[in-house]
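In the design runs reported in the main text, the only information available to the sequence generator was the tokenized backbone. The following block is the verbatim input for one such run; it is reproduced so that readers can re-run the procedure and compare outputs position by position.
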């Protein structure tokens, strides 16, 4: 299932991870979103001394925004993955090398 923001915008910024849960950026828009998130979190650390509650609230808001946007712009759904079907890590380890 594809989660694009609109029918006209079919280009996804993230791809589902092969192992584990979540997605990783594959376009410059996805990387820009991650960079903006990191810069904003870094700049918001200036609030720690003056208002720690505001810092925590802002950090939670930014994290939720990052998750919502990246889920909407992922090519596929977020779910736990163990790799591609039909492959096994154990099978690959037991191969005899010549």
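Verbatim output:
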């Amino acid at each position: 299932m594809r989660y694009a923001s609109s029918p006209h915008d079919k280009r996804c910024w993230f791809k589902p991870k092969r192992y584990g849960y979540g997605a990783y950026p594959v376009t410059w828009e996805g990387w820009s979103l991650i960079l903006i998130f990191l810069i904003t979190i870094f700049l918001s650390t200036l609030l720690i001394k003056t208002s720690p509650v505001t810092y925590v609230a802002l950090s939670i808001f930014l994290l939720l925004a990052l998750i919502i946007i990246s889920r909407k712009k992922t090519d596929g759904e977020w779910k736990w993955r163990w790799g591609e079907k039909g492959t096994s890590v154990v099978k690959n380890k037991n191969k005899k090398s010549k």
